[in-house]
Amino acid sequence: MKKALITGVTGQDGSYLAELLLEKGYSVFGIVRRKSTLDYGNVEHIKDKINFIYADMTDIVSLINAMRISGADEVYNLAAQSFVQTSWEQPVATADIDAIGVTNMLEAVRIVNPKARFYQASTSEMFGLVQEIPQTENTPFYPRSPYGVAKLYGHWITKNYRESYDLYACSGILFNHESERRGKEFVTRKITDAVARIKLGVLDCLELGNMDAKRDWGHSIDYVKAMWLMLQQDVADDYVIATNETRTVRDFVNIAFERAELPIVWEGEGVNETARRKDNGKIVVKVNERYFRPAEVEILLGNAAKAEKKLKWKREISFTELVNRMVDNDLLLVEKEIKNNAK
């Protein structure tokens, strides 16, 4: 039985990856931070199948201990301060976790079991002010946020440990991937949650930032399969994981409202752009400058040809199905919330 250690196990990707590895017969260990009360997050439904270890990405001693306890054959480093907007407010904390934390985990692997295979969750945000379209493994990086900069350090230190210590260490340069388990602070989940609330009459209007920002969106279920595939290869390498399609935030909003059977029509442009319901004319979407980034990433579009060829990976969930799943899930959650509040 293979043993896997997952940092960030309670998050979106960590939970889907844990499910995948359990299905494949792995013994799964998950790192959690010690709090007054343990929050199992997205793995609440499988918490009895995961071996939890208390550790912290900023404490190398605890990570060394986690490696020894787990005896891990595979390490998936998914832990991060992953909200881009917060990285401007907490740049040092973001660097501690997303940059130095990766070095701590790599050192723990090198010290305890240098034969273990290591996966680093890199990000398309490293491309930032894109130098070419689409982006591949060879596209120069130009991060535009403290998050992107910290993640770029994590990406390069992983490559450095692979080349310096002959570790099996690889990075997945994952483009935006969402799901029903995405946190509400992310724009995609913010949209689907708001659409559900507008549909059910508990919210009047959704406020967003740059409606023209373009992203390459996929579903997390597909992307964690790519993580596993990367660690099953004969030689460690880095891969872009993407859908090869890009959509605007406005596109995401349109499909979400369509799924909720609330067709909308757009008016104005820039900060004055709004969307009205076709049935009653009420404004349901506004642009608010407070949600604009200090340095915007205008377009991300990945080319996953290398992963498709070498890993035999392919995306199965379309963009429209992704949005539909998220809206359907939030409609159920908000409806449940309303019923509970009425009791």
From TrEMBL:
<dbReference type="GO" id="GO:0008446">
    <property type="term" value="F:GDP-mannose 4,6-dehydratase activity"/>
</dbReference>
<protein>
    <recommendedName>
        <fullName>GDP-mannose 4,6-dehydratase</fullName>
        <ecNumber>4.2.1.47</ecNumber>
    </recommendedName>
</protein>
<dbReference type="InterPro" id="IPR036291">
    <property type="entry name" value="NAD(P)-bd_dom_sf"/>
</dbReference>
<dbReference type="GO" id="GO:0042351">
    <property type="term" value="P:'de novo' GDP-L-fucose biosynthetic process"/>
</dbReference>
<dbReference type="Pfam" id="PF16363">
    <property type="entry name" value="GDP_Man_Dehyd"/>
</dbReference>
<keyword id="KW-0456">Lyase</keyword>
<comment type="function">
    <text>Catalyzes the conversion of GDP-D-mannose to GDP-4-dehydro-6-deoxy-D-mannose.</text>
</comment>
<feature type="domain" description="NAD(P)-binding">
    <location>
        <begin position="5"/>
        <end position="326"/>
    </location>
</feature>
<comment type="similarity">
    <text>Belongs to the NAD(P)-dependent epimerase/dehydratase family. GDP-mannose 4,6-dehydratase subfamily.</text>
</comment>
<keyword id="KW-0521">NADP</keyword>
<dbReference type="GO" id="GO:0070401">
    <property type="term" value="F:NADP+ binding"/>
</dbReference>
<dbReference type="InterPro" id="IPR006368">
    <property type="entry name" value="GDP_Man_deHydtase"/>
</dbReference>
<dbReference type="InterPro" id="IPR016040">
    <property type="entry name" value="NAD(P)-bd_dom"/>
</dbReference>
